[in-house]
Design brief:
Order of helices and strands: EEEEEEEEHHEH
Shape: elongated
Number of helices: 3
Helix content: 10-25%
Radius of gyration: 23 Å
Distance between the termini: 36 Å
Oligomer: single chain
Structural class: alpha+beta
Number of domains: 2
């Protein structure tokens, strides 16, 4: 690392931030402090081979928390879930409808369908928070093209259409 920023303001700390999620879509955060050392010539910094302090992994406080996802009776050809979530300490609900195409045509298992509802819920709620427009019903009416070779490709296209 080099540049004019080193002149009268030496680097005091350098951190790497890690943000990741587990298979249940829970987000975590950790940090690693690095130790920058000015070389004798003063021309640049190098990172000490011995890493500095490590801040252990901890849950990341999300903007919202999904409290539950409860199945509702079929609505025509749609599977429906009632998503209960908390945003700014206020309880809210969102009804999500997904075509039975995922389970019927693409043979998604029950676990895969529930994981899909969780991920789609997170994406839709995050989008509503960004836009400030909160809905109570969400119908996924995205018609998949016949170009997908696998169910995952179809689901990915559906998921990516939300954000």
């Amino acid at each position: 690392m080099s540049g004019q920023f080193m002149g009268k303001r030496p680097i005091k700390e350098l951190r790497l931030h890690f943000k990741f999620r587990d298979s249940k879509n829970n987000w975590y955060y950790s940090e690693r402090f690095l130790v920058p050392e000015m070389v004798n010539s003063g021309a640049f910094y190098r990172i000490n081979a011995v890493a500095g302090e490590y801040i252990p992994t901890r849950p990341l406080n999300p903007l919202f928390n999904i409290d539950s996802i409860d199945p509702l009776p079929l609505t025509g050809l749609n599977q429906t879930r009632l998503v209960s979530y908390t945003y700014n300490k206020t309880a809210k609900t969102l009804k999500i409808n997904i075509s039975t195409t995922l389970s019927g045509m693409w043979d998604f298992t029950a676990d895969e369908i529930e994981a899909a509802f969780m991920e789609l819920s997170e994406r839709k709620i995050a989008k509503m928070i960004k836009s400030g427009n909160f809905e109570e019903d969400f119908y996924v009416n995205f018609y998949l093209k016949a170009t997908q070779n696998t169910g995952f490709e179809a689901y990915k296209e559906l998921r990516d259409s939300i954000l």
